[in-house]
Amino acid sequence: YESYYQDLPQEVVKKPKTAVSPKAAEKPKRAARDTMGADDYAYCTEVLSELEKPKHRRYIWPFMQPVTERDAPGYFDIVKSPMDISTIRRKLDAGSYTSVQEFNDDLELIVENCYKFNASETEVYSCCKEFEKVVRGLTARQRDPDARINELRKKISALTAELREAERLKSQTRRVYSLSERERVGQAIL
To answer: Which residues fall in a coiled-coil region (predicted)?
Structure first.
């Protein structure tokens, strides 16, 4: 073991502290007020979760991951600001959005990019038409607070009914008889 310890350095060399550039020192850190609120974040998360559901897979698949040059040659010559669902998810999780409008703008950008690059007779274009309908429906709910309130009331009613049913079933517990108890009951009847 001594030979091992002899090969180790005798003292630890500390790295010199790096000076902070004046530009970095001037750059203000993102303030809490610059990030979206909890309700807005919940809305955006709900929209993405809805879009990622299996029932939407047949038309959302082209927009789930970034487009590559291999998949669509010439795409980046036409589309200067690419956008996809995974990028939106990453930006949302990182707290990059400061408003719901920025989030909605990125969803709209997916649609704009698709229509700009793809011909109207292509499958991807058809998928985009369906995607656009769903996105418009989901974002319209956010614009109309009364619709959102009604939707939440319906969810509360459904969950309340489910809770009552579960409590009712719990109160109706059935007794499970053992084999010996069943035999005794059978003997008593016969």
So the answer is: 149-176
The burial class, CB within 10 Å (0-12 / 13-18 / 19+), for 110 is: buried
- The answer to whether the CB of 41 falls within 8 A of the CB of 93 is no
Per domain, the residue ranges of the chain are 33-164
Place of tokens 């090969």: 7
pLDDT tens for 138-163 read 888 666 676 667 767 888 888 888 89
Residue 33 pLDDT exceeds 50: no
CATH H superfamily, domain 33-164: Bromodomain-like (1.20.920.10)
d(CA 82, CA 79): 6
Instruction: Report the chain's mean pLDDT, rounded to a whole number.
Output: 82
Is residue 8 scored above 80 in pLDDT?
Answer: no
The alpha carbon of 148 is separated from its chain's Cα centroid by a whole number of angstroms, namely: 19
Q: What is the mean pLDDT of residues 56-68?
A: 93
> DSSP string of the chain?
-HHHHHHS-SSPPPPPPPPPPHHHHHSPPPPGGGSPPHHHHHHHHHHHHHHTSGGGHHHHGGGSS---TTTSTTHHHH-SS---HHHHHHHHHTT--SSHHHHHHHHHHHHHHHHHHS-TTSHHHHHHHHHHHHHHHHHHHHH-HHHHHHHHHHHHHHHHHHHHHHHHHHHSPPPPPPHHHHHHHHHHH-
